[in-house]
Amino acid sequence: xxxxxxxxxxxxxxxxxxxxxxxxxxxxxxxxxxxxxxxxxxxxxxxxxxxxxxxxxxxxxxxxxxxxxxxxxxxxxxxxxxxxxxxxxxxxxxxxxxxxxxxxxxxxxxxxxxxxxxxxxxxxxxxxxxxxxxxxxxxxxxxxxxxxxxxxxxxxxxxxxxxxxxxxxxxxxxxxxxxxxxxxxxxxxxxxxxxxxxxxxxxxxxxxxxxxxxxxxxxxxxxxxxxxxxxxxxxxxxxxxxxxxxxxxxxxxxxxxxxxxxxxxxxxxxxxxxxxxxxxxxxxxxxxxxxxxxxxxxxxxxxxxxxxxxxxxxxxxxxxxxxxxxxxxxxxxxxxxxxxxxxxxxxxxxxxxxxxxxxxxxxxxxxxxxxxxxxxxxxxxxxxxxxxxxxxxxxxxxxxxxxxxxxxxxxxxxxxxxxxxxxxxxxxxxxxxxxxxxxxxxxxxxxxxxxxxxxxxxxxxxxxxxxxxxxxxxxxxxxxxxxxxxxxxxxxxxxxxxxxxxxxxxxxxxxxxxxxxxxxxxxxxxxxxxxxxxxxxxxxxxxxxxxxxxxxxxxxxxxxxxxxxxxxxxxxxxxxxxxxxxxxxxxxxxxxxxxxxxx
Amino acid sequence: xxxxxxxxxxxxxxxxxxxxxxxxxxxxxxxxxxxxxxxxxxxxxxxxxxxxxxxxxxxxxxxxxxxxxxxxxxxxxxxxxxxxxxxxxxxxxxxxxxxxxxxxxxxxxxxxxxxxxxxxxxxxxxxxxxxxxxxxxxxxxxxxxxxxxxxxxxxxxxxxxxxxxxxxxxxxxxxxxxxxxxxxxxxxxxxxxxxxxxxxxxxxxxxxxxxxxxxxxxxxxxxxxxxxxxxxxxxxxxxxxxxxxxxxxxxxxxxxxxxxxxxxxxxxxxxxxxxxxxxxxxxxxxxxxxxxxxxxxxxxxxxxxxxxxxxxxxxxxxxxxxxxxxxxxxxxxxxxxxxxxxxxxxxxxxxxxxxxxxxxxxxxxxxxxxxxxxxxxxxxxxxxxxxxxxxxxxxxxxxxxxxxxxxxxxxxxxxxxxxxxxxxxxxxxxxxxxxxxxxxxxxxxxxxxxxxxxxxxxxxxxxxxxxxxxxxxxxxxxxxxxxxxxxxxxxxxxxxxxxxxxxxxxxxxxxxxxxxxxxxxxxxxxxxxxxxxxxxxxxxxxxxxxxxxxxxxxxxxxxxxxxxxxxxxxxxxxxxxxxxxxxxxxxxxxxxxxxx
Lengths: 599, 596
Hints:
The complex is a heterodimer of chains A (599) and B (596).
Chain A: H1 3-8, H2 15-25, H3 33-62, H4 70-119, H5 122-127, H6 130-137, H7 139-172, H8 174-221, H9 223-228, H10 232-284, H11 290-332, E1 354-365, E2 368-381, E3 386-390, H12 397-404, E4 412-417, E5 420-421, H13 427-433, E6 434-437, H14 448-453, H15 461-470, H16 474-479, H17 497-510, E7 515-519, H18 527-541, E8 545-549, H19 553-558, E9 561-566, E10 569-574, H20 576-580, H21 586-598
Parallel strand pairs in A: 3-8, 3-9, 6-7, 7-8
Antiparallel strand pairs in A: 1-2, 1-4, 4-5, 9-10
Helix pairs in contact in A: 2-11, 3-4, 3-7, 3-11, 4-7, 4-11, 6-7, 6-8, 7-8, 7-11, 8-10, 8-11, 10-11
Chain B: H1 2-7, H2 9-45, H3 52-101, H4 104-109, H5 112-126, H6 133-153, H7 155-202, H8 204-210, H9 213-265, H10 271-284, H11 288-312, E1 333-341, E2 347-356, E3 361-365, H12 372-379, E4 387-392, E5 395-396, H13 402-408, E6 409-412, H14 423-428, H15 436-445, H16 449-454, H17 472-485, E7 490-494, H18 502-515, E8 520-524, H19 528-533, E9 536-541, E10 544-549, H20 551-557, H21 559-565, H22 567-595
Parallel strand pairs in B: 3-8, 3-9, 6-7, 7-8
Antiparallel strand pairs in B: 1-2, 1-4, 4-5, 9-10
Helix pairs in contact in B: 2-3, 2-6, 2-10, 3-5, 5-7, 5-11, 6-7, 6-10, 6-11, 7-9, 7-11, 9-10, 15-17, 20-21
């Protein structure tokens, strides 16, 4: 089951539902909400103050017999100005609070999503494009941030302005208020219909950004291959297509958004015209004063503006909601290899033994179980044994290692360490006792020392040096440009592949596990170093259980026991010498070709 | 900004015309309202005559103006939006094209996450203010017209406008000045957060196997927290500015009311003129802020643009030549006194000289970290030497064209890179002359035909990003097939079968041996069988060529070489000795026991 399939099917969840789901996941958003809303309410009143002042001014100050009464006008203007100052201050405090609360909440959800992606199983992680995962914790959150800093406030203030304006309008003339509402009603319905289409358009936008980022990242990571094969034209064409696709999607969303916005504009014109027509009749009937009528014309404008802006902001909101939804979809994704956490147990102390009980595994293909790569593997490995797992490429060796370290769970059967089913073991206990060195010795963009400390942050310099001494690698480390402080570059690329594996090995060694799983961990190291390492590893791993996946049979020779896997089945096991006694066995053949290559 | 207008002048013109039309209609509306108050509202509320004709005319004018505004909005927004998108796409094209052109050494110096955000969010930020720009231009036009209209009405009211509007401008400028560093900092933090996320997800397997999720989350949380603080600081300034910008035009309206009433008392203006002017201030309140948007986003835009420009102006010191290598068949590779360092003062290769004669196979042997991969990379001209020369058939590789170089030399790197494409796409790479037959042959030679045949759609199977659906050994064989499919005249194998098990590797070597007639091979190797394939061995240590010669000769004369290639045998002998010793000891112990 691919995670992207889950997020992209785009359940047609309403924006409101997403919003509620989002708020329930970030309860911090509700902190001090009442205060913020209160301030917003006061800030809104400022919006209606000026039209009221105009009405008051006209009816009380200008309409006098002796022309305008400057005293009255000055009083009205003074009071209104004071109100404006107060409401402006409230606006400031409201925004301060809102930004602080929302940014804090979003930073938290950003971190939680980041953590959650790490908690997803390896299979999930691999099925997602890397660029897509990154955009979950970057651009998706940014789109919400941007919306809140730009639109959220506007939406809040304008929503309130709409309410306040409507109340003031109704106070002056309920008939005209009905006329305005009637003029806007059709527009509201049409705009809602557009919102649905827009939401789809923005979802498509986001999807295409993901594809585009994937393509960019491929061309950056694969730069040397692209250059070596002189195929930059080809990669460029592919990339261009994704960029253009995204532009197309942006344009489409824009067209819908503008059309929707225009609907509001037409409604505004209709409302203004109707107010004039109906207002004049009301004026003739003596039901409205000159000041009230003039104020109404202002108020209609104040009514139109927020509706317009709200449409605008709602469009932006669609984008933010799309980002939020994708974020939530990731957070909601249940890790299929879950940490039992508090419900789990700790592994028993001391060396660990391993048992596989009728374990089968098949990688999922499009959400369905694919062909089996392991068939009912049933075996026990006593504690403190050094085991080598060998077999042809694709025989299921690496799958075996991944099940043993619980990077994946078996499709059938179970894996136990010292009698405890792996699924019951807390990750905290599992990961500190069981360490795997994967084939690709991934290093972080830091120094050699920092990479090794990744396994044990409290390691002192002396201990660090001791670790390299134990492994017989001190000479090598000291030969590096800056010794332990040599920066390894992005993904460790400043070191050779073999050197990266040495650092990865040291990292696993200092973790001091009781079960060490090596997945072809020294495949790129030269034979002399490998043999030396093998010997020192034998010494330092004595007393713990070691499982080494290897195609260099030198590893198998020195192991206590060799397990031969073929097509997902364990076909032979026993010490190296004993396995060789059957000359036609798979192992004997593997060994023969190994000898042929190395002698 | 000017660059944007120069790049997309037509869309910009459409947007500006739309925006100005919009501005004119807004001012027109204020005049019409003033007129309607005079012609309809005043008479109606004071018992005067109101004709139906004027009413219908007024309503029609208002609706016609509404329709005009719709038209203007379409022009302004679509013009501005399309312009923004077109510019974003254009510069994304340019930045990514640059990525593809820049040499490997440049890529090695830049983090993937940074390059991603250069092409994505920096380009986006650079062109962000383009969208409200036409609106802002239209607003400036609107303000000029407004002030003119105000002067036509009354000089005192015009003075109010001349006070209010410049204050708006000054506030905008002050705001953008203060916002600039905060925005730049936030943008910088955004990139940092992205870089951490990228690296952490890249190394997800290590994080998982080491159980360091907490540590990584803390590392990420720290940066996310700094980004949060940066965004809050941006938000606070905006929180101060926005309400001020909103209430200022309202204060202007009040001022207009006050001054207007005074002028009316003096008999200088009529009532409807006062209404018109106050209405104008009300409707201008919103558009004036568009100027603020442009100015407010300008700093972020400039910061984004600076980073984009850094990429666009990056110069690779590795331009291709124009020469095409003549001849066909195997090519001769030679290194002449090559020095190389990734970092200044940390040389990796010193004075490396050797030749791989045409059609011959040379094995490059040396301990881990001795510079083998660097030599392989130089041979394919992914890097250039600091000193000395790498030559193909005697021609300096720096003089060769990209096409000629790619057709001549193929490097199979240690770490297989698989494109998000089909098997066919990955092997053929759409190179001319690489048809399905060649793809099949290459897959067969690389021993990849069997597993490809088992894939659900064979050659048409999509492999996914980085080919994660394949095993390490399968990926290596696929990339080997990619190199073979181009029938290169020089094949450089950088430990390219490290993840392939011995039996499969033996088959690969056998079929290579059968088909290498027209290819020169430089192979980085440890295994005897691979070395046996070679006519000659170049043995290096710490970036220097220690010895060159046949395997037998080096085995006999160079102790470092002998130690390296016979490591397994020696280890086995030693184990054998230990076993004998252990057995002897056990026997002795037993005897002792018996004796006791």
